[in-house]
Structure formats: structure tokens, C-alpha cells
Amino acid sequence: MAWIYLVIAGLFETFWATMLKFSMGFTKINFSIYTVIGMILSFWFLAKAVKTLPLGIAYPVWTGIGAVGTIILGVILFGDRIPAVTWIFVVLLVVSIVGIKLTV
Predict the structure, then answer these.
(1) Which residues contact 51 (CB under 8 A, 6 or more apart)?
(2) Helix/strand/coil (H/E/C) assignment for every residue in 19-86
(3) Is the pTM of this model over 0.85?
(4) Nearest to residue 66, comparing CAs of 39, 102, 99, 92?
(5) pLDDT tens digits for range 23-32
(6) How many structural domains comprise the chain?
(7) Helix (H, G, I), strand (E, B), or coil: what is residue 104?
(8) Which sign does the torsion angle of CA 98, 2, 55, 59 carry?
(9) Spatial CB neighbours of 1, under 8 Å, sequence gap ≥ 6
(10) Can you give the residue range of the structural domain that contains 49?
């Protein structure tokens, strides 16, 4: 169950980072509220996960899910341009996250 909590925490990290962009520096109240709610939920699910998972495993997986998700949403929603070579490292990040899961 801890791994499920960790994935949910990572998805909420992606959510709040995306809402932060939409909040335009906390000038749009609705998106600012969504950002804070996403942060709270992300940390809450991370806290649930680290009850049983080692912090040294949970934290990098959490941030990795958030990073990859945010990169993908940045490209889809905001037209962020990512150089082709950068995608190699994004794939390596995904491989690393899966590798951590498979070896713990």
C-alpha cells in the first residue's frame, strides 16, 4: 500500500506544480488554492508512504514522479520545448524510478 501512496503523492506533486504555473505567481486565486491543496495532499500521501518505506527510497521516487510528470505536462499544456537529448535523461529518470521499485 505504501507504494500506491507514494505514486499518488508523486501525481499530486505534478498537479500542484502545474497549478502553480496556472496561478501566475499566486495572482489567480482559484489556481493558488488548487496549488496549496495539491501540496498538502502530496505531502500527506508522502507521509503515509514513509511510515513503511525508507525515506531514502521514497523521497527520490516522489520527486522523480513529480519531475517526469511536470516535464510531460509542461510540453502538453504550455508548449515547453525540450531538446531531444533531454528526453534521453527523462527516460533514464523513469528507468531509475522503476529500478528503485524493483530492487527494494
Answers:
(1) 2
(2) HHHHCCCCCCHHHHHHHHHHHHHHHHHHHHHCCCCCHHHHHHHHHHHHHHHHHHHHHHHHCCCCCHHH
(3) yes
(4) 39
(5) 999 999 999 9
(6) 1
(7) coil
(8) positive
(9) none
(10) 2-103
